[in-house]
Design goal:
By secondary structure, this protein is an alpha/beta fold. The protein is 31% helix and 20% strand. The strands form five sheets. A seven-stranded parallel β-sheet has the order 13-14-12-15-16-11-17, sandwiched between helices. Strands 18-23-22-19-21-20 form a six-stranded parallel β-sheet, with helices on both faces. Helix 4 packs across helix 5 (207-237), helix 5 (207-237) crosses helix 18 (648-662) and helix 15 (570-577) packs antiparallel against helix 17. It binds adenosine-5'-diphosphate and magnesium ion. The site of adenosine-5'-diphosphate (ADP) has 17 residues, from helix 7.
């Protein structure tokens, strides 16, 4: 019998070498390996006769070896066998699989699993690279729903499966949540994690996987809540923040800000100013949909900070966004000293010469984070925190951050749609300010799905739209990739470079209709030039990759074309669509697709009708099948592996369960213990 905490060496069939390979990937215990869930499953549970075996679907055959030969074609070793059952016979091929030769004795019977195809020349059915397994009631690779694991484990599929089957067949009962005996009136059973993992790796039916996965998701959410609860205590115990007090003699928002703040923006600023006065560092999330006006709120907070004689730091996920904030904030706060710091070579030299002695707003990409010791910010702002990704984990987002003798107040801004109640259930350590009203009465962006044959016409229409207005107008064309892909299945997917070349040809050279190309592959200086032209409205049409998804603000943008729209999630599409019509003008979003898949077009049609970001996120979730649950889509915020931020019901269950744990009604032995702590002190 195995326990989840046992090391893998204790598992039958795992030798030192295999254990070492897994240890290299930080997989040491049985639990570590159990959490390597299959990427997908192949249903080989249909055991069919050779005559009835369909082509193109996974099947299992029960047959007898009637002929075997082994030969080489070039350097490739080929094993060929003819297998027979009462309905007929079939030829099987294996490449570089000479180890099978001794197994495939003539006259012996096996399960053969795989997908049949038709040989072009002869029209005969054949089976290549079949899994071969002895006939038995309890198979691993054949005659059942078979798990397929990530290649990243650097083990053969067969080996992973064999080890995991051995584990799940002998796993001791494992209850992470139990009903405390004192409250014996409650009768309820929590699923045994041993069973849950058995289902996840070797499901009897694929539908059972969803419930099992949900059990893991619940476990994960409980851990998130527990962690946040501990973090909240940590934040509450800190007292080294610098008190920031907006000046008594000057207006809270300087008159140089060219617009009046919305009610929500004012409320957010009141909440922020209350926090900033304290010695306990603020840890606040400013949440608002794209275009809700988060930047100015951060700008005012930074303005107060510098007024109080301290420095502030604002970190943006991309250089383009940092530069744009620089433009906006210099305009709104002409007497606020701002130092732009980005990762580009040019500004690195600037950084070396940077004068850190005066209070300033330091603004840039994560290059700013490397200078925190020198900046000593009293306020640290993260824009679009969820875009930083796991690699660039933002210090201060989890544990309170200490830099030398001070602890900055932390303000995080995000547009990831999470209902307020859920935020509060999950992140006890964060206070929340929300911007719900839009500063502009943004008319819903008219959205159309444009099939391939209508696209030439659409390009003409776009030019007319952008050149005939009285005020300058701009358009954005988003392509999923930079360069054309070599992979055949992506051949038809538009790449930015290619689309740019095509459009240049289509539109010809017209001084009133200039095109520009912007993507992540350009040198930082090139990007800056392109963006400067775009902001100065010297360019009318910007062809780009989803780089613009990250908060870029082009008030004159009126039309956005999203090519290969079916490749984007609804949440991404929503972010992209939020790029146009930001000054309140009429705006259009054209979804180009060549997809003939009806589910894909149905999804895009839904997107044309729905303009609410939260609803779209929910739709995205509902429409995902079990298969997609295994995708690696980024949900934002922390890196949730199993749960989803949009699963309202499950989050509510988790919160209630956690309350019962705290009340002592349930006992809980967490499955997920955070491996690494977020560093307390900024790395330098
Ligand atoms: P986001 O919340 O997506 O970061 P931004 O801060 O980029 O949004 O703001 C979107 C646009 O709205 C910007 O052009 C900004 O200058 C403008 N804006 C922000 N607040 C107001 C306001 N109160 N009145 C008018 N325009 C505003
Ligand atoms: Mg923004």
């Amino acid at each position: 019998v195995y326990r989840s905490t046992d090391t893998l060496q204790t598992v039958r069939g795992v030798g030192p070498q295999l254990a070492a390979t897994l240890a290299d990937q930080d997989i040491h215990t049985i639990q570590d390996l159990l959490l390597q869930l299959p990427l997908r499953y192949e249903d080989r549970s249909h055991i069919v006769t050779i005559a009835a075996a369909p082509v193109g679907e996974p099947v299992t055959l029960s047959a007898t070896v009637s002929k075997v030969s082994h030969f080489y074609r070039g350097r490739r070793s080929i094993l060929q066998a003819v297998i027979t059952d009462e309905t007929g016979s079939l030829t099987c091929y294996w490449f570089n699989a000479s180890y099978l030769k001794s197994k495939l004795q003539i006259g012996s019977s096996f399960f053969f699993a795989g997908t049949l195809n038709i040989q072009a020349k002869t029209g005969k059915k054949l089976l290549t690279q079949a899994a071969v397994e002895a006939l038995s009631a309890d198979t691993i690779h054949t005659g059942r729903i078979v798990p397929l694991y990530s290649q990243a484990l650097s083990l053969k599929q067969g080996s992973v499966r064999r080890i995991l089957k051995e584990i799940v067949d002998h796993l001791a009962p494992w209850n992470s949540v139990t009903v405390a005996s004192t409250t014996s009136t409650i009768t309820e059973t929590w699923s045994d994690l041993a069973e849950v993992f058995k289902t996840l790796h070797f499901p009897e039916e694929e539908t059972a996987v969803i419930a099992a996965r949900e059990r893991l998701a619940l476990e994960e959410l409980l851990s998130v809540i527990a962690k946040a609860t501990v973090l909240k205590q940590h934040w509450n115990q800190q007292n080294k923040a610098l008190p920031i007090k907006p000046s008594d003699t000057q207006p809270l928002v300087p008159p140089s800000v060219p617009f009046a703040l919305t009610g929500d923006q004012q409320t957010a600023l009141t909440e922020i100013s209350t926090d900033l006065k304290n010695r306990q560092p603020m840890n606040r999330l400013l949440f608002g949909d794209v275009g809700s006006g988060k930047t100015i709120v951060a700008g005012v907070a930074a303005y107060w900070t510098v007024q109080s004689g301290f420095s502030a730091a604002l970190v943006a996920p991309t250089q383009i966004l940092a530069e744009q904030h620089y433009q906006t904030l210099s305009r709104c706060f002409p007497d606020l000293p701002i130092q732009l710091m980005t990762g580009s070579a040019k500004s690195k030299t600037v950084t070396n010469k940077t004068d850190f002695s005066q209070p300033k707003l330091y603004l840039g990409t994560h290059a700013v984070l490397n200078q925190l010791e020198k900046i000593q910010p009293a306020l640290l702002v993260y824009d679009e925190q969820h875009r930083f990704g796991v690699k660039h984990r933002s210090p201060g987002w989890g544990e309170p951050l200490t830099i030398g003798s001070i602890q900055p107040h932390v303000l995080t801004m995000s547009a990831t749609p999470i209902p307020r109640t859920l935020m509060l259930s999950l992140f006890a350590h964060l206070s929340l300010s929300t911007l719900t009203e839009s500063p502009h009465i943004k008319q819903p962006t008219k959205t159309w799905l444009v099939p391939a044959h209508k696209q030439p016409e659409a390009w003409e229409w776009i030019k007319t739209q952008l050149t005939t207005g009285e005020t300058p107008e701009q358009g954005i064309v988003v392509c999923p990739f930079i360069n054309p892909s070599a992979k055949e299945n992506l051949e038809n997917v538009a790449a930015a470079t290619e689309t740019f070349a095509e459009l240049k040809q289509l539109y010809g050279s017209d001084p009133n209709f200039k095109l520009a190309l912007l993507h992540g592959g350009l040198k930082p200086a090139e990007k800056t030039t392109v963006m400067a032209d775009v902001f100065a409205q010297k360019t009318q049409l910007l062809v780009t990759t989803p780089i613009v998804e990250v908060g870029v603000d082009l008030p004159a943008a009126k039309v956005i074309v999203i090519t290969a729209a079916e490749r984007f999630g609804l949440a991404s599409l929503h972010q992209l669509r939020g790029r146009v019509g930001r000054a309140g003008q009429k705006s259009f979003c054209l979804l180009f697709t060549t997809s003939k898949n009806s589910t894909a077009t149905e999804r895009l049609n839904l997107f044309c009708q729905e303009h609410n970001g939260l609803k779209l996120a929910e739709i995205d979730l509902q429409r995902r099948g079990a298969g997609d649950l295994f995708g690696t889509a980024q949900h934002g915020f922390d890196d949730l592996t199993f749960a989803s931020w949009t699963n309202v019901e499950l989050i509510t269950t988790a919160r209630k369960t956690y309350q019962r744990i705290q009340a002592g009604e349930l006992a809980w032995q967490p499955l997920f213990v955070p491996k690494a702590q977020i560093p307390h002190v900024a790395a330098n």
